[in-house]
């Protein structure tokens, strides 16, 4: 009885199909393409059929419907037969020898074309059946005959059957479209770049992402999918069935190719949980086709919604529409943990810190945006992810560090500093602070570096700059001057004076040139100015005693000749320097510069010479007046000066004209204004 009802139902569908003109058929095609409800299109076609019914086809259909005892049940049977939705996954396990024997089965270009054209034909035929079935259901609703439907069944037809038939029609429309849509040829470098991006997402191990081979003839995207992905799944599934042997099945080629085509449809079926087909399009760089596929799928299919949004975001990235991509990635986040494809994105690696699934998802997307080079989008997404990590301080620290890094790369110094101060991990905060100091120094953006408030980070930033100042070349980096400006900006004049005094000491030891001596004198002058800004009782600085060595934080310990660590002194000797001491050092620096300007060869030894050594050098150079001033300042005996002067005079007395000519040089170098003269002289 049910079989007879189904036969009568199919006869009604045939009558409808034969009556539909090309213009009417085009209405349904456009409705599917423009994402309009197929039910409305079916209703419009029905009205056109009734308006143009010159051969009384509607009466024939009505009489056929009278023969169907239970139209609702018959329609339900037909829908179930055409529906490929399933919750089951295909069996994939196969013995090795079977996999080897089947590896090339239906792998030729001809076989691929035959199978996929068969699928296209099946999809086209069933699309037309669904179209005619929708029109018939609209007719049943219009008739409203209680003898045919019954009161309760009319409601069921409207609410259930229409809602089941419409997605069925759209599914076959989508498969037919994919079977006719050509795949694009993709350059090798594009495939390699795509593979690199997918490796960040850790999706490269799936068979759905195998880059397709070059083919001589145009290929549809369904043929591409079957050849690279689906064929192996289908063949493996067919020969894993119970009571099925390779030898028996291989003898029945018509049955086998029909079975393969039938098994390909579930892999293409949009509402199944498997996501191999869209994933294959992404892995093969078929972005334009993938966008159109998702567009046709989006309004009515509620399976893998998040996965589709993610793939659409990937397409937008390739097309250069980063902000649209970010919107898609954010929309997909709500489906994390619900869909198999998105779950594969968040599989934690060995040793990877466990966090919420959504945070793991954000982490993968952040990596993708980072490798593509979209720092502004990274910042936006990381800022959004922080709201998700409200109770996870480790994830917050990672995200804050990420935001800091990209703000700094973009030159957003204030935002980078803000992200740094909000980092809950003190070690990461210190790393970021160190990076901020180094980068801003390299960019010569020192004003920002000096003027940041550094709340609760003052000692840390001073330590970082001091460490850098003591570790790098004095003449190529200006960390001492930066530290001086840092302290001056905060009115910490004693610290500023200490910094410049240390700078001057190092210049004398390490930069033994005329320029180094000039900078040394300027450093001591700056230090004196700093102490003069302080009340006299506080105008002093601490200087490490001679022999004390500064040890940088993190430096390896000093060792003896046998490799043992040397004992660290319990207390470092210190020496207090007051304003008067700095003035003496400043005078000594000026005298060193005077000597070097008079005799450039002495610059190498003058920089770190003591006052006693400087007296000898000055006498040797004939700068007796300067030597006397130095002795008076440091309370040194004048004996070496007069001995040197006497030696010069004796040498001049016994020398010839050459000696007398040289005498004028060293006499001119002394300040004659200091000699007392009278009118008689």
TrEMBL record:
Sample GO molecular function, one term: structural constituent of nuclear pore
Every NUP160 middle TPR domain range: 269-533
Span of domain NUP160 helical: 2-225
InterPro entries membership: Nucleoporin_Nup160 (IPR021717), NUP160_helical (IPR056547), TPR_NUP160_C (IPR056536), TPR_NUP160_M (IPR056535)
Lineage top rank: taxon: Eukaryota
Annotated organism of origin: Chelydra serpentina (Snapping turtle)
Protein name per UniProt: Nucleoporin 160
Limits of the NUP160 C-terminal TPR domain: 578-681
One Pfam family of this chain: NUP160_helical
One of the record's GO cellular component terms: nuclear pore
